[in-house]
Specification:
Layout lengths: L6 H8 L13 H17 L6 E5 L5 H8 L3 E6 L2 H13 L5 E5 L2 H7 L4 E7 L8 H11 E12 L3 H14 L16 H11 L2 E11 L4 E5 L5 E7 L5
Parallel strand pairs: 1-2, 1-4, 2-3, 4-5
Antiparallel strand pairs: 5-8, 6-7, 6-8
Helix pairs in contact: 2-3, 5-6, 6-8
């Protein structure tokens, strides 16, 4: 089976791995938005005691936040160096309930169908060749009634101006080339893919990040960054 990965995308994050947990590095925005992302999940479910999968976990920023809430979390990614950073940081934090694996969602779905109460796939779909394939795997991995959370960037002129030109080239919040405009995903596309995979889409939320105050808030504006909540029906 051909793996759903882009070597160029993996190389971007491999080269930055050592700085993943530095809150003033290229990953500063990720640290700043993480409380809002984890808080959004809290609004939908208490993950304590739940089996949770973090797809595209990178260095483990969200993975650890979920483990701190009492979840049994598996973080998966295809970048080797960030996973090693994630493993070391979890050890340094003396954090229990965290497992990391270098594997794709599609390959894991062949091993562990129907094993997870909650799956997160945040800031990841815009970096793979076939997002629909990942969403289908997530549906397979979820238990009936399980919840899946996604976040990504809309594809429109405003998102291009703010998330690419502004963030990467003007403010230099992210390395140049982090995002490609053609890979960005409209909410209508994400909703269609999720429903085609068999998920019920329950909510969209916009995520607004202020790089000057370093504050992140959720609202109804999905024109740039946004989150989507979905559910696997019970009767499958």
């Amino acid at each position: 089976m051909t793996q759903n990965i882009d070597p160029a995308e993996l190389a971007k994050f491999e080269s930055l791995a050592s700085r993943w947990w530095d809150p003033n590095s290229e990953f500063k925005p990720l640290h700043d938005i993480n409380p809002a992302r984890a808080g959004y999940i809290d609004q939908h479910i208490n993950v304590a005691g739940k089996d949770v999968l973090d797809v595209g976990c990178g260095g483990g920023i969200l993975t650890e936040a979920l483990a701190q809430r009492g979840a049994r979390v598996t973080g998966i990614d295809m970048t080797e160096a960030p996973l090693k950073v994630a493993q070391l940081h979890a050890l340094d934090s003396e954090l229990e309930g965290v497992t990391y694996r270098q594997i794709t969602a599609e390959s894991l779905a062949e091993e562990q169908a129907g094993q997870y109460d909650v799956i997160t796939c945040l800031e990841m779909l815009e970096h793979v060749p076939d997002p629909m394939s990942v969403i289908q795997a997530i549906h397979t991995l979820l238990k009936p009634g399980g919840l899946a959370f996604f976040s990504t960037i809309n594809r429109n002129p405003k998102a291009w101006a703010m998330a690419i030109v502004g963030a990467e080239y003007v403010l230099r919040l992210l390395p140049k080339g982090t995002h490609e405009y053609r890979k960005l995903i409209r909410p209508s596309e994400l909703k269609r893919w999720a429903e085609t995979a068999g998920l019920q889409v329950t909510e969209f939320k916009g995520m607004h990040y202020n790089p000057f105050s370093r504050n992140c808030s959720l609202n109804a504006d999905v024109s740039v960054n946004y989150l989507m909540a979905s559910r696997k029906p019970e009767d499958v």
